[in-house]
Specification:
By secondary structure, the protein is an alpha/beta fold. 39% of the residues lie in helices and 14% in strands.
Length: 360
Amino acid sequence: MRLYLDHASTTPLHPAARAALLEFDPRVTLAAARARLAAALGLAESASLLPTLGGSLANGLALEAALAARPGRTHLISQRSEHSSVLRALEALERRGCRLSWLDLDPEGRVDPAQLDELLRPETAAVSVMTANHETGALQPLAELHARCRAAGVLLHTDATQGLRTLTPLAPLPADLISFAGHKHGGPRGVGAVVLAEGIAEPRTWPASPPHVLSLAAALEEEPRARSQELARARDELEGELLAALPGARRNGPALARLPGHLSISVPGLSADALLLELDLAGLALSSGAACSSADAGPSHVLLAMGLDPAEAGASLRFSLAEPLDRVGLERVVAALRAGALRLRAIAGAAGPVDSAAAD
């Protein structure tokens, strides 16, 4: 049986979401579907909710709404480990005349809120910093960023596609604009949303369909929230055993300030693509980074922004769990990765430090 370890790329459709689609009553209006989704998010009554046709569109619309809410301001601040959809939207705005500034990342992939004060200008409209990174799980200091933005009269946008549950209930709002994709939370593809603080006008867009919005709401209503500590313990156990089995391997990202199911490691001297093939043959599904960037040549832009060299970034694997692994599953993952690394090093003619006896 295949073992799915790539929930940061997409999640299986939750049974409740599937039932909501199959049992949809066509008399349900978009307004009613929006109200149910808002309730599932614990949204403050003063905020507004705009369902969209996906997470990438939600990110672009959020940035457009921020600029419209601060007319005459054309300066935006972000950081370079954002999801590619945010980076593409920022690049498009730059071509239209906006100016961009970038927050630096520390070696763990987190920004320093104090640097924001150095980058803010009178013409700054908004800051865009993700809630949690899609590759490393690193959590950004949103509360401090939001406080500094509010003091300067600047809007804060966060892409909460990863880490949405660390923010809910969304009352009070942890940012002025919050965007996310539904399929990362047990919902269907083709639906996302933008949450907008009071006073920010909804941008014009083609709305998501009521059945998709209801399906996402049903998934969020059922999404577990109370198992984060259990999941983090299982993730830490997996990390410890993988690093012990692969001398020289390293964790990418923070030890503590990260999502409970995320683990990114680099295995020096090996190609992530080759390792992923070995693991696929062993029945394990995981990735080297963001699903939307998996077809791009070159190492992860996230890890490069954190200061890793191209070889380290090109040897990275991402594990993203939705449920804790049992002992059998954990041992299966460790054995498959150890055996795959040994095989690749043997093929390359440089066996490396992996103990061949341990791969049996």
